[in-house]
């Protein structure tokens, strides 16, 4: 299979007349530039490399447009999130995740890191298949066609010296050792090609996550860091809220970043999500370690988290990636613009990140964070492509390399993952994402209604 691109973004710069050759394993075998199209080529217009959504909670999509009237802050929003989590079972999560992954594909995300912590039954008891929820998410990705890094998450407590609440019981495994045993078993299930993940889409990559320094004691984090293979992608929510910093300082006398540094967790395989409220010393530690900082600007704005020091982190040596987090917005270009807009608002200056910088964060930064290799349009990278309409009412007249600052998900035409077209003009082989989402959300609403205690008549 060969794809001929009228214009392709290579290393952030627009290159004309590019032919991309697929290898049998779904990677890029070689590239030709400045060549005419051939009869056997699949003809594309303006093409981006695949874009990696480095942080997602798929089930949070159920809250879109349903919490805005509530006001409050992150902690009040979290109560609504817990209600949605309580309604999920493996079948419903497969249906909802499939719909969300379809929305991601038609919006231009070709890979996703699912930060997954809904492991067990609502009362904390394991399902008969201890990996039922994880395999449901993996199967949803495979059947939809998106590239998935499943970031299986350890979540052990409700905060410093606080056990999990009743609404958090299904997130926990009891101990770090128990989580590691379940993680090892999940790795074996995925490696064995379980029937639950035998769809035709790309293979699932298993990663890991520490939910946050408030959700695990220091000893548990040390156990997990010692027990995980060193090449596994590792993610953590970091300093999203000032309260998290205050509690960590009270418990350990350290900032969350300082605690991770003492544990030896700050290495290039670590991705820190949000990284909003950092000290100068935190920024230096993260930059010196070469971690990836994953920003989710639409979520950070929606939840009132604040504006993180993205430019300072990049200047210090950290790599940047972008994510959709709560999926209140699923649009890689709005995340990229949100990153730049936040910097402009905080600094009073334009051009804090160049268009190639934003493309790098969307593509190579995201893929590196997810353990998916180099990303981008280069030999050996996955053959993941996103074709854009460069002549829409939004994009007409823009330079191809500046499309991250003007395009939206509505401009995505075709999406290729592993050399296979998985979305075209807003549709996937699985169906219309809007219809899939509507059906999944109706079922979720019915389930929430069934489990909500009724007021006495």
Automatic annotation (TrEMBL):
EC number annotated for this UniProt entry: 3.5.3.13
Presence of keyword Metal-binding: yes
Cofactor: Zn(2+)
Top-level taxonomic group: Bacteria
SUPFAM superfamilies: Composite domain of metallo-dependent hydrolases, Metallo-dependent hydrolases
Keyword tRNA-binding recorded: no
Pfam families attached to this UniProt entry: Amidohydro_1
Enzyme class: hydrolase
Keyword annotations: Hydrolase, Metal-binding, Zinc
Database matches in InterPro entries: Amidohydro-rel, Metal-dep_hydrolase_composite, Metal_Hydrolase, Metallo-dep_hydrolases
Domain Amidohydrolase-related, first and last residues per copy: 46-422
Molecular function (Gene Ontology), one example: formimidoylglutamate deiminase activity
PANTHER family: AMIDOHYDROLASE-RELATED DOMAIN-CONTAINING PROTEIN, GUANINE DEAMINASE
Alphabetized NCBIfam families for the sequence: PRK09229.1-2
Full protein name: Formimidoylglutamate deiminase
Provenance organism: Cryobacterium algoricola
